[in-house]
Amino acid sequence: MPSLGRLHLITDTRPGRDPLTMVRAALTAARADLVVQVRVEDSATDREAYELTREVLALCTPYGATCLVNDRLHVALAAGAAGGHVGADDLPVTAARRVLGPTAVLGATARAPGTATGAVTGGASYLGVGPCHATSTKPGLPDPFGPEGVRAVAGAVDVPVIAIGGVTAARVPALRAAGAYGVAVVGAISTAADPARATAELLRALA
Ligand SMILES: Cc1ncc(COP(=O)(O)OP(=O)(O)O)c(N)n1
Ligand SMILES: Cc1nc(C(=O)O)sc1CCOP(=O)(O)O
Ligand SMILES: [Mg+2]
């Protein structure tokens, strides 16, 4: 299984956003250290998800960066991505692992230690743990649980924990101290005036 990068950039495909420009900018700063997770709106078609994934892969490959696909594992496989990420409304982790095969990267969302240990037993290679802080990027999330929520999950598992939700460079040290291996962001890069610089700041905070 490939070693996992510490900085995960999740594509921002809300209306008016330009995910490919954001990915290009982040790659210039992070190169092989970046993991790009292709996440599309639920209303997007599989064809749109596939085409975006192929475009993201074409950007990532020359840098040696990793491309994952959120939710739609058939798109990940068809496009040739390194793996996928599933949560409570997606395929169960054991089924996702069967779909992707033994060597793919498989992320699973875990908000509590019990879910986390179950996901690892089912074959997750990393966990997305959040929301750590309040976020306006995704509606309907439970209340943020801060670094202490990350600590509870990280203490229960032996796979990398990727903290998500309202993550900024300034918040990275506390999340790392709580046991996060890395972080996943949307807004910290996609809404930054200078996305490449924002990426470099996140990487510095993670080092
Ligand atoms: C790294 C990471 N962590 C958590 C999530 C959230 O996944 P999920 O709970 O399935 O919600 P959606 O992203 O599908 O709306 C994630 N995508 N990545
Ligand atoms: C897609 C997603 N999932 C979350 C979770 O907690 O499961 S938080 C989130 C959005 C993260 O965006 P931002 O970095 O802009 O806060
Ligand atoms: Mg999902």
From TrEMBL:
GO molecular function, one term: magnesium ion binding
Keywords: Magnesium, Metal-binding, Thiamine biosynthesis, Transferase
Top EC class of this enzyme: transferase
Pathway: Cofactor biosynthesis; thiamine diphosphate biosynthesis; thiamine phosphate from 4-amino-2-methyl-5-diphosphomethylpyrimidine and 4-methyl-5-(2-phosphoethyl)-thiazole: step 1/1
Domain Thiamine phosphate synthase/TenI, residue spans: 7-189
CDD domains found in the cross-reference section: TMP_TenI
UniProt key word Ubl conjugation: no
Required cofactor names: Mg(2+)
InterPro entries: Aldolase_TIM, ThiamineP_synth_sf, ThiamineP_synth_TenI, TMP_synthase
Protein EC: 2.5.1.3
Binding site for 4-amino-2-methyl-5-(diphosphooxymethyl)pyrimidine: Q37, V38, R39, V40, E41, N70, T109, K138
Residues given in the record as Mg(2+) binding sites: D71, D90
Pfam family, one: TMP-TENI
GO terms under biological process: thiamine biosynthetic process; thiamine diphosphate biosynthetic process
Cellular-component GO terms for this entry: cytoplasm
Cofactor binding note: Binds 1 Mg(2+) ion per subunit.
Binding site for 2-[(2R,5Z)-2-carboxy-4-methylthiazol-5(2H)-ylidene]ethyl phosphate: T135, S136, T137, G166
Catalysed reactions listed for this entry: 2-[(2R,5Z)-2-carboxy-4-methylthiazol-5(2H)-ylidene]ethyl phosphate + 4-amino-2-methyl-5-(diphosphooxymethyl)pyrimidine + 2 H(+) = thiamine phosphate + CO2 + diphosphate; 2-(2-carboxy-4-methylthiazol-5-yl)ethyl phosphate + 4-amino-2-methyl-5-(diphosphooxymethyl)pyrimidine + 2 H(+) = thiamine phosphate + CO2 + diphosphate; 4-methyl-5-(2-phosphooxyethyl)-thiazole + 4-amino-2-methyl-5-(diphosphooxymethyl)pyrimidine + H(+) = thiamine phosphate + diphosphate
Functional note: Condenses 4-methyl-5-(beta-hydroxyethyl)thiazole monophosphate (THZ-P) and 2-methyl-4-amino-5-hydroxymethyl pyrimidine pyrophosphate (HMP-PP) to form thiamine monophosphate (TMP).
Family assignment from sequence similarity: Belongs to the thiamine-phosphate synthase family.
Record's protein name: Thiamine-phosphate synthase
Species assigned in the record: Micromonospora orduensis
Lineage: Bacteria, Bacillati, Actinomycetota, Actinomycetes, Micromonosporales
Underlying gene: thiE
